Amino acid sequence: MLLLAFPSLGTAMLLLRWITVAVAAVLVSAANTNVAIKAAVDSVDSKMRHAGPTILTLMANQSLSDTTLGRVMTDIGTTWRIAGTTLRATAVSDGSTTTHPTNDDIGTIYGDALLLLSTSLSGIKATGKVPGFPAQVRTLDPIVANATRQLNVTLPNSLVLPSILMRDARQFFLAEGFNQTLASLGF
Q: Are residues 18 and 79 in the same domain?
């Protein structure tokens, strides 16, 4: 169809090249915005460091239910949603391998947050005490996947390290139904 609108293949290719350059210009990095990116990533890591033990306590106290876990899942979802929004509002970073926080610092922290999320929720389905768990996961999964994709846009190639860290722990996301999150990590 594109060829019909232009007198020659060269004209069509020139237009495609122009569009490519225009799109790339939108994604050009502003500077090293890793400090702002790390703040968003720290928020989800911190949330998971509190939510994980809360979930384990609910399980240990035999008080795990749709209601008790639902409150925790809502809180987790809110934190990941805010992180995704914050990352979207942050300029694309040039990143750094030497200035702290480095790209690897951010990747390690994000990978830790994902590991904590996956292992904290591991086994909940098997307890049978939270029949609404699949629905809770269907709500949380796209939120986490969105934040994950946005991190990779704001800090290009930032998911390499978290993907490596998740190679073993991905089994927990798979068992619990976090399909969109796994896809956003390249699994």
A: no
SS (H, E, C) the chain: CHHHHCCCHHHHHHHHHHHHHHHHHHCCCCECCHHHHHHHHHHHHHHHHHHHHHHHHHHHCCCCCHHHHHHHHHHHHHHHHHHHHHHHHCCCECCCCCCCCCHHHHHHHHHHHHHHHHHHHCCHHHHCCCCCHHHHHHHHHHHHHHHHHHHHHHCCCCCHHHHHHHHHHHHHHHHHCCHHHHHHCCC
Residues 112 and 173 in one domain: yes
**Which residues constitute the domain of residue 65?**
34-184
Reported as a single tens digit per residue, the pLDDT across 167-182 is 888 888 999 999 999 9
Task: Give yes or no: residues 85 and 101 share one domain.
Answer: yes
- pLDDT of the residue at 7: 53
